Amino acid sequence: MNMRALRSVILLGGGSLMAVSPVGLRLHATTGTENASALAAAPEIVDGHTKLGFERLAAFKFIAPNYDPNADPAVVLPLIDAQIPAEIKKYDGKMAILTGYMLPIRMDGTQVTELMLVSSPAACCYGAVPAVNEWVVIKMKPGAAVSAQLDVPVSFRGKLTVRGHLEGGYLTSIYALEGHSMSMP
């Protein structure tokens, strides 16, 4: 995702943020502390995919690091990694099903090739700016682009990555999914 696209998303995400600032993303904290019950409950497995909801993915407080122009996107930053609970990290590299609301970022004609999946319709386009653990950046596999589905919940299947994703010195996400397919829940 390029920072111009993220900057646009944040401006559309509620206006309470004036874009990515020099001190990092200013996002609200979700719970303040880990929600142990959401993390402890075993998720459902459907056709070899772990069904993960935002009640689990956003069940912990995450504070985005400040802008670092020298940050190497290939290096796992301890400040980011230490905030993600082991109960969440264990899904890194796993096949997952995620359900939320689509915010298209990149299109190929009328088809969406990259999007943000957000936890709530209020965090999609016009409401409150979501915390970084309340969205997933989804890049659809080549040939798997989907039609835009706005203001309705959608589910995506694919391979989940759990780690800080940096671009141009900014944290752009902690969750990414290589999208294989989309369906209506």
Write structural notes for this entry.
By secondary structure, the chain is an alpha+beta fold. The protein has a single domain (3-183), classed as Protein of unknown function (DUF3299) (OB fold (Dihydrolipoamide Acetyltransferase, E2P), Beta Barrel). The chain is 15% helix and 35% strand. It has five helices and eight strands. It has helices spanning 3-12, 36-40, 54-57, 78-81, 86-89; strands spanning 45-46, 49-52, 95-108, 111-118, 135-140, 146-147, 153-167, 170-183. Strands 3-4-5-8-7 form a five-stranded mixed barrel. A hairpin with a 2-residue loop joins strand 1 (45-46) and strand 2 (49-52). It is globular and about 40 Å long. Residues 1-32 have low confidence and may be disordered.
Annotation field: number of helices: 5
Main beta sheet: 5 strands, mixed, barrel
Order of helices and strands: HHEEHHHEEEEEE
**Cα shape:** globular
Return the domain count. Answer: 1
Secondary structural class? alpha+beta
Short description:
This protein has helices spanning 3-12, 36-40, 54-57, 78-81, 86-89; strands at residues 45-46, 49-52, 95-108, 111-118, 135-140, 146-147, 153-167, 170-183. The chain has 185 residues and is α+β, with helices and mostly antiparallel strands. It has one domain (3-183): Beta Barrel (OB fold (Dihydrolipoamide Acetyltransferase, E2P)), CATH 2.40.50.870.
List the SSEs and their pairings:
Layout: H1 3-12, H2 36-40, E1 45-46, E2 49-52, H3 54-57, H4 78-81, H5 86-89, E3 95-108, E4 111-118, E5 135-140, E6 146-147, E7 153-167, E8 170-183
Parallel strand pairs: 2-3, 5-8
Antiparallel strand pairs: 1-2, 3-4, 3-7, 4-5, 4-6, 7-8
